[in-house]
Design a protein that fits this description.
Layout lengths: L8 H11 L2 H28 L3 H6 L19 H5 L29 H13 L3 H10 L2 H4 L13 E6 L6 E5 L6 E2 H8 L10 H20 L5 E2 L16 E4 L6 E3 L4 H17 L9 H17 L16 E4 L5 H4 L5
Antiparallel strand pairs: 1-2, 3-4, 4-6, 5-7
Helix pairs in contact: 5-6, 8-9, 8-10, 9-10, 9-11
Amino acid sequence: MDENEKATWRQTLRSKFKTLDKRKVLIYAVVGILYISGILLMIILPIKFLPATPASTAAQDLNVGNNNNYLPDSCPIYTVIASSTSGAPLSEGPLQLPFQRPTSQCRTFTSDAMEKLITNMTSRMVDKDLARLFENAYPNTLGIHFPLYGSNGLDTTISWYTLDESNPLSYVITGDIPAQWIRDAAHQFAPYLPLLPYDANLRALFRGLINLEARHIASFPYCNAFQPPTESGLAPQSTPSNVRVVPSTDSTVYQCKWEIDSLASFLRLSWGYYQYSNGDSSFINSNWQNAVQSIMKVLQAQSLPTINADGSVNVPAYTYQPGDSRAVPYLYPEFS
């Protein structure tokens, strides 16, 4: 290259690179990396050890508190979802109704047969607002997250279950109180009977409800509502202390107001399961047999007349007397 000719930038860069001390360059690079890494650690570490705000507020937030014992703590209670008017996607009808089902991870129970039925039904319905109502309402018992001990916005759902074939149990909270009513729980499951042939887990869930109700009826056939089973690990609800019931009860009973339709509902549920499951009789165990025997004894006792033909009085086999009853102070002075 001519001495008077100006070097290009590439030639200049190449010549400078040849004169560089590569050892010094490596040292500078390592020092620079360490310096930048130190700055990043100073920023990241304090953030890492800060308490997580969402987790600290979740325990006090009624919208995510009081979960069933097997759902993620982040699941909102159903009333929050049901009161929302912006659940996406909105229905395509003129009312634009919101989608109000919990997400899949926040559903207490999922039935594949039910999901297929909902998809099939809603796709055929011309009225898309009506389709949305069906989609929101039909699976409620199986898939609502219920605030087990919440103070507001209670609804019905499965609170706890185990599909263990040796002892299936399903605890179904009913109405506006977190206890299981024999009659209401059976009626809640009735709309799902046609799905039994297509869903083995749903059949096990039904057997769990029949088995738990049978266990209660066998022991306390005059009682209509019960506390969570001990297997669930759920704490029992408080009950009135100034009620005298004959026959006596124990802590598994929530309420003991005799209703013949409770016993009839249990038999109806048992027959419905047998009919729709194509004759599956695996639910007929010792619990169930003892329950049926107890039902027969109760019906016989309640069929007796108050006064016999000879004028003698039949002592009632069952009495329920709350403390504020007018007859109670006379019969039981301790309640006066």
